[in-house]
Specification:
243 residues, alpha+beta, six-stranded antiparallel sheet, four-stranded antiparallel sheet, elongated, 5 helices, 25% helix
């Protein structure tokens, strides 16, 4: 619960309401503290506003709506909480979830034959068509995936795991490529440490590229026999249009 001395202008705070009487469906409001002020009756109030949305540069300034201002008086300032307190509040609601119990069906590990055939076809197409710059392969309904890009006599395989959310994919990627004595060509953090950019160079060998892709899907991303794959090509003409 917020006290006046704990509020810092520009910092992020929250207050939580509920959609139901059982307090199982939280409604989280995010606000930024602005200042302490007084209302018309001379009573202390604490002024917050909704965070401003960063819009694309091509949107005119006058098109951006001004953030809503919210004020709290002494009697309800206790409703304002910080990140740590928000986690505690959400944990209290977590015991009610899932609202409807269910069992997740399990499937054997490994990719099915249909997915394997599609993988073979799409990687073959990438390496045989000079108009294609890269191929991104993901497991359907997830963001588990990687990109393959032909580079002269080599093939670059790129990843963008999120170590703060789940460190395991990055660990498994490194372990897999170490088995082939391959070190990253690119290895750095971005998005304030949220995203790791990793890339490796392998020989321009179709069979090896396919086999390694299967290993990535199964060893890194734990693909199951019911999983379908998604394929997205980047065409050279797409890059030229954006120049």
């Amino acid at each position: 619960m917020a006290r006046p001395e704990t509020l810092v202008a520009g910092n992020c705070y929250f207050w939580v309401g509920y959609y139901d009487t059982e307090l199982a469906l939280p409604n989280v409001h995010t606000v930024v503290y602005v200042r302490q002020d007084k209302n018309e009756e001379g009573q202390d109030i604490w002024v917050f506003q909704e965070p401003s949305v960063e819009l694309p540069k091509d949107i005119e300034e006058h098109e951006q709506a001004a953030p809503s201002v919210i004020t709290f008086e002494e009697d309800n300032l206790h409703m304002i909480i910080d990140f740590d307190e928000l986690l505690v509040v959400l944990k209290q609601a977590a015991e009610f979830h899932p609202l409807n119990k269910f069992e997740i069906q399990t499937y054997p590990s490994g990719i099915n034959q249909t997915a394997r055939n599609e993988l073979d076809q799409q990687i073959s197409k990438l390496l045989s068509d000079s108009e294609l710059v890269s191929l991104t392969i993901t497991i359907r309904y997830t963001d588990n995936g990687f990109s393959i890009s032909p580079k002269a006599d080599n093939i670059e395989i790129s990843f963008h795991p999120h170590p703060k959310i789940d460190p395991n994919p990055e660990i498994k990627i490194r372990e897999l490529f170490e088995k082939y004595s391959l070190k990253p060509e690119r290895d750095y953090l971005s998005d304030k440490g949220r995203t790791r950019s990793l890339s490796y160079m392998i020989s321009n060998d179709l069979s090896f590229a396919i086999d390694l892709s299967v290993r990535i899907l199964t060893d890194v991303y734990d693909a199951r026999s019911n999983d379908a794959l998604k394929f997205a090509f980047l065409h050279r003409s797409q890059i030229e249009r954006n120049l």
